[in-house]
Design goal:
Elements: E1 7-14, E2 23-31, E3 34-40, E4 52-62, E5 64-69, H1 79-86, H2 90-106, E6 109-114, H3 121-128, E7 138-140, E8 145-146, E9 157-158, H4 166-173, E10 179-183, H5 203-216, E11 219-224, H6 227-236, E12 240-243, H7 249-258, E13 261-263, H8 267-275, H9 285-305, E14 308-309, H10 325-335, H11 340-346, H12 349-355, E15 371-375, E16 390-393, E17 396-397
Parallel strand pairs: 1-4, 5-6, 6-7, 8-9, 10-11, 11-12, 12-13, 13-14
Antiparallel strand pairs: 1-2, 2-3, 4-15, 15-16, 16-17
Helix pairs in contact: 2-3, 5-6, 6-7, 7-9, 8-9
């Protein structure tokens, strides 16, 4: 490799994803699409102009990862629209899935972990239609989630037959994925603070599934709120707890000890409080705000205890928009006591480790030169992530990224049978 083939990128600030201090005035050396060196930018150093890219007016940071989304659902607050999209066909949902992926990409979110849909449409889309070259967002999905009959979960999955165990149901469905989603509690009450529900599955049932999943090289993500549903999932050996409202200190300590990941989806509660007046279902704003405050306390405790926390938004929930809600989730992490660099680490390195994406997560020598470029200073983050300067992929500005204000606004789903006026 000759010196002339190297690109020396001068950056004003670098946040590398490891959670440490922001690094000022750095030079990132890129060769053949990979980072080969990062070092301090010494003012006296003279580099040939043709070898230098000037990003001294910018901050660079790793590609963002949203560890919990629902690509088949919009963040609409129109309840009639929300009900219709749950009954939509695969053909009707494809434009919506692609639109949501565009929103993620335009906000620098190039990897997402889907939380499941009742017909497995996201898995089908990934097999039949997703073109990473055209829409460079990596998607991991469990397909249909699994819940107990007559309990919460029908909107994102299926339940075992009457004579089946949880493991038998998962094996029967045989979805082409190495991610399994289980629902082990109900939703959080919006009218009674801290109301909890019983676990949907026993520790034995979950344990059998986790053991088989490990044998197959699969991971198990578990929707669980409340002390008992969370403890059951942790003791069974699950890989991650999704949401985890009201799980309590003992469960957080257990997660830290066992290395279980937590995706707290804090912003969902703020979105409920902000949009309560538009929703038919009864929402007590004070209860939603109490739920939010309690979750912030748990996130602060998780940081203190050393729990592995990955940032996820639950986008597709009421008022939780794909792409831009990651910034709102970041703000809440910082409100809970995480520093900017730690927060970005939860949305990059921790997310990459949770999803098993070895090429993403950090900016360091040996990794592909994939990173976001935000104009301004670190003090303007995370707000500036809603309008990026550019996205570098394999050492070059992405041709797919367009700095166009209209690109980040939701277009109508033309030709979709259930489309109509969607209020945001």
């Amino acid at each position: 490799m000759t010196e002339k083939s190297s690109n020396h990128i001068r950056v004003g600030s670098l946040i590398d994803g490891h959670g440490g201090p922001v690094r000022k005035k750095q030079i990132v050396v890129v060769e053949s699409g990979y980072i080969v060196d990062i070092y301090d930018d010494v003012a006296a150093e003279k580099l040939p102009a043709e070898l230098v890219t000037d990003l001294t007016h910018c901050v660079i940071l790793p590609i963002l990862i949203d560890s919990h989304v629902h690509l088949c659902m919009s963040g609409s607050i129109d309840q009639e629209f929300r009900e219709k999209q749950l009954e939509a066909t695969y053909e009707e949902l494809v434009p919506m899935i692609e639109e949501h992926l565009r929103h993620h990409f335009s906000h620098g979110v190039l990897a997402v972990r889907d939380g499941g849909d009742r017909s497995g449409c996201v898995l089908r889309y990934l097999e039949e239609q997703h073109d990473p070259a055209t829409l460079p967002v990596m998607v991991t999905s469990p397909g249909r989630a699994h819940h107990r009959r007559d309990r919460y979960g029908a909107l994102i999955g299926v339940c075992p037959e009457d004579d089946e165990s949880l493991l038998q149901a998962v094996l029967r469905l045989a979805q082409p994925t190495r991610l399994i989603k289980v629902v082990n509690s109900g939703l959080n009450s919006m009218t009674r603070f801290a109301q909890q529900t019983e676990p949907q599955f026993s520790r034995q049932q979950l344990g059998e599934l986790v053991s088989e999943a490990k044998r197959l090289g699969s991971k198990v993500m578990v929707h669980a709120n409340g002390e008992d549903p969370v403890r059951t999932a942790i003791e069974a050996g699950c890989h991650s707890i999704e949401h985890g409202f009201f799980m309590g200190r003992q469960n957080l300590e257990l997660m830290a000890d066992k290395g279980v990941y937590w995706v707290p989806t804090i912003y969902t509660m703020k979105a409920y409080a902000l949009n309560a007046e538009h929703y038919r279902t009864s929402i007590d704003v004070k209860v939603a705000e109490q739920n939010l405050a309690h979750q912030l306390e748990q996130v602060a405790l998780a940081r203190e205890l050393g729990v592995k926390v990955a940032l996820g938004t639950d986008s597709g929930s009421i008022g939780v928009l794909h792409g831009e809600s990651l910034v709102e989730e970041m703000k809440l992490f910082m409100r809970a006591g995480f520093s900017l660099a730690e927060t970005i680490g939860c949305a990059t390195k921790q997310g990459a480790q949770l999803l098993g994406l070895t090429d993403l997560g950090t900016i360091e020598p040996g990794k592909p030169a994939n990173f976001l470029v935000a104009r301004g200073t670190p003090s303007q983050l995370p707000r500036k992530l809603t309008y990026l300067e550019t996205i570098y992929l394999n050492g070059q500005p992405s041709q797919a990224y367009r700095r166009d204000p209209d690109y980040t606004t939701l277009r109508k789903f033309e030709g979709v049978a259930f489309s109509g006026k969607v209020r945001y």
